[in-house]
Design a protein that fits this description.
- The structure is a single chain.
- It contains eleven helices and eight strands.
- Strands 2-1-3-8-7-4-5-6 form an eight-stranded parallel β-sheet, with helices on both faces.
- The radius of gyration is 19 Å and the shape is globular.
- It has one domain: 3-Layer(aba) Sandwich (Arginase, Chain A).
- By secondary structure, the protein is of the alpha/beta class.
- α1 crosses α9.
- Helix content is 35%, strand content 10%.
- It holds the Pfam family Hist_deacetyl.
């Protein structure tokens, strides 16, 4: 059922597909184009609650809210000479190939997320989505993990600049949101919460339960490291065992979220076993939590996701639909026009429905009992013990 109380600014610029490391790189911008085409084909852009927006690239003063001036200059040099390697700044590496549009495309994606934050904070819209964003690995002075400019961190920094006193960041990408955590490690105004595959089996090898914030910001970071192979029931159990309770205690004025689709069972770069159906449920949960604890103020980004045809477009279309207040029935068939466009672009058949056919169910961690022999429950308890006491909560 549609939620008419929701409004959405959807930030999109076709030039965001220029964030293209080249043939063979996992970060294929086709996933962005296919997402936007599916959003359009399902009529979401025609909804009165949805306003399409495009913002200019983030300028240098904005980029320097998180990134060093030296690093911004290094990105520009790499764009001017893509054949050069700059290991000190993580450019020209196996993950972060240089290309001529490196600075321009990265700044454009960052600009959308910053503008989304501004629009929500100023009351122009309760919700904003930039699914091309979510580049959460970029560090202040270094590219990392396919990420050049850290747009979620820049959005948060802009919110703080505008006067926000409590911002919650919720990251459900399969990889740890290390760059955002690092940017606000010792800032008690920002709570970073990351659910991700265990660092023992996946890049970037950070995000342990013991990482809880700097000396002046104890409890400002929460990390739940999931065992490889975790599926829908475990993923949803973990999310609901940590995120709602923390947000209720922190009382954020605004939520920024990152919805990497690489938790999916078909993703080629990780080892969780989540479905599009569970990803939709988490998007709905974040939406609900924004209304419960942040006055409805919610900025959502995309992130990772390397099953370009089968997963990413459906996962992020559900995200857009949820934020618009017009959720898409999972049983909905994907439009024939979108299937044709998918085949034209990729020469691969598109999924036929907006569901993987799953009906995810999970047991509540506190009401459903703790199993001391279960690795997932061990991980949940470790994080709760590390973080909740900082917020006056009982693990």
């Amino acid at each position: 059922m549609a939620d008419t109380s929701c409004g959405l600014h959807l930030f999109w610029d076709e030039a965001e597909t220029g964030y293209d490391f080249g043939p063979g790189h996992p970060m294929d911008p086709t996933r962005l184009a296919l997402t936007m085409r599916l959003v359009e084909a399902l009529g979401l852009t025609d909804r009165p609650s949805v306003t399409m927006r495009s913002a200019p690239p983030a300028g240098e003063s904005t980029l320097r809210l998180v990134h060093t001036a030296e690093y911004v200059d290094a990105v520009k040099r790499a764009a001017a000479d893509p054949s050069a390697t700059d290991l000190a700044h993580g450019l020209g590496t196996d993950d972060n190939w240089a290309f001529p549009g490196l600075h321009t495309a990265s700044a454009l994606i960052a600009g959308q997320s910053v503008a989304a934050a501004e629009a929500v904070w100023r009351g122009e819209t309760p919700h904003a989505v930039n699914f091309a964003g979510g580049l959460h690995h970029a560090m202040p002075g270094q590219a990392s993990g396919f990420c050049v400019y850290n747009d979620p961190a820049l959005a948060i920094a802009r919110l703080l600049e505008l006067g926000a006193e409590r911002v919650a960041y919720v990251d459900v990408d399969v990889h740890h949101g290390d760059g955002v955590q690092q940017a606000f490690w010792n800032d008690p105004r920002v709570l970073t919460v990351s659910l991700h595959e265990s660092p023992s089996t996946l890049f970037p090898q950070t995000g342990w339960a013991t990482e809880t914030g700097g000396p002046d910001a104890g409890g400002s970071a929460a990390n739940l490291a999931l065992p490889a192979g975790t599926g829908d029931a475990g993923w949803l159990r973990a999310f609901h065992a940590l995120v709602p309770e923390l947000l209720a205690a922190f009382r954020p004025q605004v939520i920024v979220s990152q919805h990497g689709a690489d938790t999916h069972v078909e993703d080629p770069l990780a080892h969780l076993a989540v479905t599009v159906d569970a990803q939709r449920i988490v998007a709905e949960a974040v939406h609900r939590l924004a209304h419960e604890h942040a006055g409805g103020r919610w900025i959502a980004t995309g992130g990772g996701g390397y099953a370009v045809v089968d997963v990413v477009p459906r996962a992020w279309t559900h995200l857009v639909a949820t934020a618009a207040g017009h959720p898409v029935d999972p049983a909905t068939e994907t439009p024939e026009s979108w299937r044709a466009e998918t085949y034209r672009l990729t020469r691969r058949p598109a999924p036929l429905r907006m569901t993987d056919g799953a009906t995810p169910r999970w047991s509540d961690f506190q009401d459903g009992g703790y199993d001391p022999a279960d690795r997932l429950d061990q991980a949940i308890l470790a994080t709760r013990r590390a973080v909740l006491p900082h917020h006056g909560l009982i693990p």
